[in-house]
Design a protein that fits this description.
By secondary structure, the protein is of the alpha/beta class. The protein has a single domain (8-260), classed as Aldolase class I (TIM Barrel). Helices cover 49% and strands 14% of the residues. An 8-stranded parallel β-barrel has the order 1-2-3-4-5-6-7-8, surrounded by 7 helices. Helix 9 runs parallel beside helix 11 (218-238). The longest helix has 21 residues, at 218-238.
Length: 261
């Protein structure tokens, strides 16, 4: 898996190429990775990937592929062709789709595949509503095991599920979009932690959009985020940290949900 240092990705959650290019031009000296999501890709197409690559940065193509195995494999092939470094696929697509996507990535020299366990806008109640009997933590572990068995390199999951998945599947690359700096809105994410808490829990990459894009000084906001995650990384690697109260409270709440399910 490609090493991302510092482990930060800024989401280009904007509506057109001009706005995306402005963000990349402003932040490319302080951000190692940019995410192109469905909104921007539908508006501007593959040239969004080309723009980021031309700026000298790798691209996280967040298409959340969820289709029959043949179509998913074809999407992976095309993502490789246009130069995407990472691509997201949905765990809900099932084992055969994951396997076909992995085979296609191996055949075409990439991209790195990250399997979405469940959207961070969903909680246990939402999963039950659509017929999923497992809670979000159990779902993350189940999808993670399938992804690992089929050769996928990593997962997309909320920071609330990182600790149990890291313990069960230590070799997987874990990326989380469900982070918000302290004091900022969770927006439509339902299972959030701070970037530092996500790193301390075992995340390999944090993905941040609106708190950076909406900041009055984006460069300063990114630099503060870099300082936060690098400090957390140093604590994690030294073994000197204690699990934060926020993480403990989240784990206690999740365990209560486990017992009620």
């Amino acid at each position: 898996m490609m090493a991302i240092d510092p482990p930060i990705c800024v989401a280009l959650d904007v509506g057109d190429l001009k706005a995306a290019r402005a963000v990349v031009d402003e932040l490319r000296d302080v951000v190692p990775l940019f995410k192109v999501g469905l909104e921007l890709f539908c508006a501007e197409g593959p040239r969004t990937v080309e723009m980021v690559k031309d700026a000298g940065a790798p691209v996280f193509l967040d298409l959340k592929v969820n289709d029959i195995p043949r179509t998913a494999a074809a999407v992976v092939r095309e993502a490789a062709r246009i130069g995407a470094d990472f691509l997201t696929i949905m765990g809900f697509g099932g084992r055969d789709m994951i396997a076909a996507s992995v085979a296609s990535a191996q055949e075409h020299g990439g991209p790195h595949l990250l399997v979405v366990t469940s959207l961070t806008s969903l909680d246990d109640e939402h999963l039950r509503e659509i017929g999923v009997t497992r809670n979000v933590r159990q779902q993350a572990l189940a999808i993670g095991r399938i992804a690992a068995e089929e050769g996928a390199e990593g997962l997309i999951l909320s920071p609330r599920e990182i600790d149990p998945v890291r313990n069960a599947l230590p070799h997987l690359f874990l990326a989380t979009p469900g982070v918000r700096p302290a004091g900022t809105s969770a927006d439509d994410h339902r299972r959030v932690l701070t970037p530092a808490d996500a790193i301390l829990a075992g995340a390999d990459l944090v993905v941040v959009g609106r708190p950076i894009l909406d900041a009055p000084d984006r460069v300063a906001a990114v630099k503060a985020l870099v300082d936060e995650v690098l400090d957390a990384e140093a604590q994690r690697e030294s073994g000197s940290h204690e699990v934060s109260r926020t993480v403990r409270d989240a784990e206690d709440a999740d365990l209560e949900e486990d017992m009620d399910t």
